[in-house]
From TrEMBL:
The HTH lacI-type domain, residue ranges: 3-58
MF terms (GO), sorted A to Z: DNA-binding transcription factor activity; transcription cis-regulatory region binding
Alphabetized UniProt keyword annotations: DNA-binding, Repressor, Transcription, Transcription regulation
Signal peptide (UniProt feature, chain positions): none
Record's protein name: HTH lacI-type domain-containing protein
Taxonomic source organism: Enterococcus moraviensis ATCC BAA-383
A Pfam family this chain is assigned to: LacI
UniProt-listed PANTHER family: HTH-TYPE TRANSCRIPTIONAL REPRESSOR PURR-RELATED (PTHR30146:SF148), LACI-RELATED TRANSCRIPTIONAL REPRESSOR (PTHR30146)
Cross-referenced Gene3D superfamilies: 3.40.50.2300, lambda repressor-like DNA-binding domains
Length: 338
């Protein structure tokens, strides 16, 4: 049987209004002894507040929508887990939806969340949305709830966003290979239309320029971010003459290259050195530990939650862009050349 506020009021011999004041910790003239009695009765009966009624009273649903592009990607799965935990600690329920990197699906999901009255949103944009930048900007500016973009950023202003410095990440990983004697370095990139991909390519170019190494277009292979894409494009990589090392768009693509290397009988890192991106936990259990660039999802979560919280509680109007620094993680997948 569902326990209602009036049941507690009857047992405590007080009004429903008094029970409401006590359970919501509102100021009142009720004695401390009676407050403790009311709370003890509620606890004994396992009373659960009517969230719908509270939402109507407060004009807030205590719900946050989280929109991600690929729930199968461990980076986004971990990010969702961390976001859910932090929002739950703040008293929010989270609704997690997956766009599958489809802009139309993404727009529909966001509208559905808004229709359900979410108080705010955390959005990791789909790759496809960057193919229609004008539509992307128009859609984002029409969202009538506080939101924060995470991981994949936009170039236009007045949008709250938290992301990692991809240019620094591209530069770090390339310099690591150059320091280990590699000169013919391929790059299996993400989608060219995504700003973070272009930023990483800039970092790659900066590192090559620093070492007076020529930038070669044929060494750039647009790949994407999934395991199967890594396997498929690895065949193109292996056909390049003289390449001794490769950067990948993320660890999942690196795993795909490693799988294809095993199938093709190519030794890693003896014949080819490889660097991933994201520092997924499973990268550490490989027979050859994967060199990678870490994007600390805990920092991303902390900053995104703090930013959205300030928008919700303080009605913050000024937008903010927070750029986090990636970290190079060395690994056995990179061979030092003489």
């Amino acid at each position: 049987m569902k326990i209602r506020m009036k049941d507690i009021a009857k047992m405590a011999n007080v009004s429903e209004a008094a029970v409401s004041l006590v359970l919501n910790d509102k100021p009142s003239r009720i004695s401390e002894k009676k407050k403790q009695e009311i709370k003890a009765i509620a606890k004994e009966l396992n009373y659960v507040p009517n969230i719908a009624a509270q939402s109507l009273a407060k004009n807030a649903s205590q719900t946050i929508g989280i929109v991600i592009p690929d729930i199968e990607n461990p980076f986004f799965s971990k990010l969702c887990k961390q976001l859910e935990e932090q929002f739950r600690a703040l008293g929010y329920l989270t609704i997690i939806v997956n766009s599958n990197d489809d802009f139309t699906v993404e727009k529909n999901l966001i509208q559905m969340l808004l229709n359900r009255g979410v108080d705010g949103l955390v959005i990791a944009l789909s790759n496809e949305s960057f193919s229609s930048k004008e539509e992307q900007e128009h859609f984002l500016r029409e969202i009538d709830a506080p939101f924060v973009l995470v991981d994949r950023h936009v170039s236009f202003s007045d949008i709250n966003q938290v992301y990692f410095d991809s240019q620094a990440g591209g530069r770090l990983s390339t310099e690591y290979l150059l320091e280990n004697g590699h000169r013919n370095i391929a790059f299996m990139t993400g989608d060219f239309k995504v700003p973070s991909t272009l930023d990483r390519i800039k970092g790659y170019q900066q590192a090559l320029q620093k070492y007076d190494i020529e930038y070669r277009e044929e060494y750039i292979i647009e790949t994407g971010y999934r395991f199967q894409y890594g396997m498929e494009k690895a065949k193109e990589l292996f056909s390049l003459n003289g390449v001794t090392a490769v950067l990948t768009s993320n660890d999942m693509v690196a795993f795909g290259v490693l799988k294809q290397a095993a199938i093709s009988g190519k030794s890693i890192p003896k014949e080819l050195s490889i660097i991933g991106y994201d520092h997924l936990e499973i990268a550490d259990i490989l027979e050859v530990s994967l060199a990678t660039v870490e994007q600390d999802s805990s920092s991303l979560t902390d900053q995104a939650v703090a930013l959205l919280k300030s928008m919700l509680t303080m009605k913050k109007k000024k937008t903010e862009t927070i750029v986090l620094k990636p970290i190079l993680i060395e690994g056995e997948s990179v061979k030092k050349l003489k």
